[in-house]
Write a structure and sequence with these properties.
Radius of gyration: 21 Å
Oligomer: single chain
Shape: elongated
Mean pLDDT: 83
Strand order of the largest sheet: 6-8-10-12-14-16
Number of helices: 1
Helix content: under 10%
Strand content: over 45%
Structural class: mainly beta
Order of helices and strands: EHEEEEEEEEEEEEEEEEE
Largest sheet: 6 strands, parallel
Distance between the termini: 39 Å
Length: 208
């Protein structure tokens, strides 16, 4: 069966003159290949001295059918995913990850940037991790799944449906009492900053 995937690049750059900058941007391409059922996209840049022309920004827009698995890795740039139903393996070195009404299993890791959005879970062990930035997620339905949220240098806000069943275990090394926010009442077993806090939502469920 034919699957339509549309890819568009938007490029910005600067050079010693307009013609040099245009020639450089025309040489910025996207190499597309396929391995098994995986579509591989890799940017290619022309050889030029930094003094002649540089790339200041490149945005890659990919439109796919909703039922697809994604694996995306960026060195510097944001990742935005909308209404995808499938497994998502997303990595950003410097940049934010935004999830808009996505459904699936998640492996989201960021070195410097935020992870935020509105998601639906389907099971598995879901990981959301940022070394420098905040996590702000809204779970849209009551289908529960295990979640591991780590923000080394930032706060965590998790909004869950009223009847979401879960076992809660979290630890904050910050003096800020609002470093971790879960917008539901929870039975607290321990509540000391720097110590593990353990509790249950709606009788318990997958571990968060």
């Amino acid at each position: 069966d034919r699957v339509d995937i549309r890819i568009r690049l938007e490029k910005q750059g600067q050079g010693i003159d307009e013609n040099t900058a245009k020639m450089y941007l025309d040489g910025v391409k996207l190499a597309i290949s396929k391995a098994d059922d995986i579509l591989l996209l890799k940017p290619q840049f022309p050889d030029t001295s930094d003094a002649a022309a540089t790339l200041t920004r490149v945005d890659c827009f990919i439109e796919t059918p909703p039922d697809v698995s994604l694996k995306i890795k960026t060195a510097k740039g944001n990742i935005r995913v909308q209404r995808i139903r499938g497994d998502m393996d997303l990595m950003a070195n410097i940049g934010h990850v935004q999830l808009s009404e996505t459904m699936g299993e998640y492996q989201v890791k960021v070195t410097e940037g935020r992870i935020y959005g509105r998601i639906l879970l389907t099971g598995g062990d879901n990981v959301f991790e940022t070394q420098s930035g905040a996590i702000d997620l809204v779970v849209l339905d009551e289908v529960a799944a295990a979640m591991n949220l780590t923000a080394v240098d930032g706060g965590i806000t998790l909004r869950l449906p009223d009847n979401f069943p879960a076992e809660i275990e979290f630890q904050s090394g910050k003096s800020d009492a609002h470093a971790i926010t879960i917008e539901l009442p929870v039975e607290i077993e321990k509540a000391f900053v720097g110590d593990v806090i353990h509790g249950w939502l709606n009788g318990g469920g997958p571990l968060i």
